[in-house]
Amino acid sequence: MEKPAQRFRLTAAQLRWIALGAMLLDHLWAMVVPGNQWMTYAGRLAFPIFAFQIAEGFLHTSNFRRYALRLLAFACLSEIPFDLMYASTVFNPFHQNVMFTLLLGLLAIHGLDRARRERTAKAAALGLLGLLGTWLAGTVGLVDYGGMGVLTVVMFYVFRDVPLARLGQAACLFLLNMVFFQGEYLLVEVFGHVLEVQTQGFALLALLPIWLYGGERGRGGRVLQYGSYAFYPLHMLALYLIK
């Protein structure tokens, strides 16, 4: 008897490569080849995948403290290359790199997970205060994607292994990226009417590879993990030097 054909699934390593490639396209568009709008549209896929992997990483890590400190370390290392790339200065207090966004999201879900496990009024209150605090820190601190980026990480934690999880993820990404997010618009003509559509809405396409994730780590292990962290500041520095 023939075995049933296995469904195509993506590994965590393959998801990471997709996110890195999308991010590189977006930054190339911003720094080297402006005008190729398709590159920034493709780049919208990067952040939701990174946010999803932070939520997955939290659920699988054996040492939360080490995980958080690793994100903090690379966030600090990435800030000068980030400022150089976006503002041509070594210090720009008006825009912080995405590693800080991911770190705040990680801290938020840590508090919510504790509330879920302990099921006490105190833990619930602390979890909600932590969520509000990290969202506020992301907004006031002007991190990449702002408070909406923090909520994206939280959303992937909340809508995991629950009924209608995919519907919840799609609805939340739509709200976060097309309703509440303020950014560039794409003019689209529909039946003779010109509509303004958030270009950030292309982020919803990231759900396609995310939903193909099969739960396996894939090839690369820690080399890929740390390499992808290091790639973030190094590629921004390289793009600044090219520019």
Question: What report would you give on this structure?
Answer:
The protein is 67% helix and 5% strand. It starts with 11 loop residues before the first helix and ends with a helix. The protein is globular and about 50 Å long. It has helices at residues 12-31, 37-43, 46-60, 64-87, 98-118, 121-140, 146-158, 165-179, 207-211, 221-242, and strands spanning 185-190, 193-198. Helix 5 runs antiparallel to helix 6. It is built from ten helices and two strands; from the N terminus they run ααααααααββαα. A two-stranded antiparallel sheet has the order 1-2. It has 243 residues and is mainly alpha-helical. Strand 1 (185-190) and strand 2 (193-198) form a beta hairpin.
What is the oligomer described by this structure? single chain
- Helical proportion? 55-70%
The helix-strand sequence is HHHHHHHHEEHH
Number of strands: 2
How many helices in DSSP terms? Answer: 10
Largest sheet: 2 strands, antiparallel
Tell me the β content. under 5%
Structural class: mainly alpha
Reading side by side through the largest sheet, how are the strands ordered? 1-2
Radius of gyration: 19 Å
Span from first to last CA? Answer: 60 Å
Instruction: Estimate the global geometry from the Cα principal axes.
Output: globular
Low-pLDDT segments, ≥5 res: none
**Overall average residue pLDDT:** 92
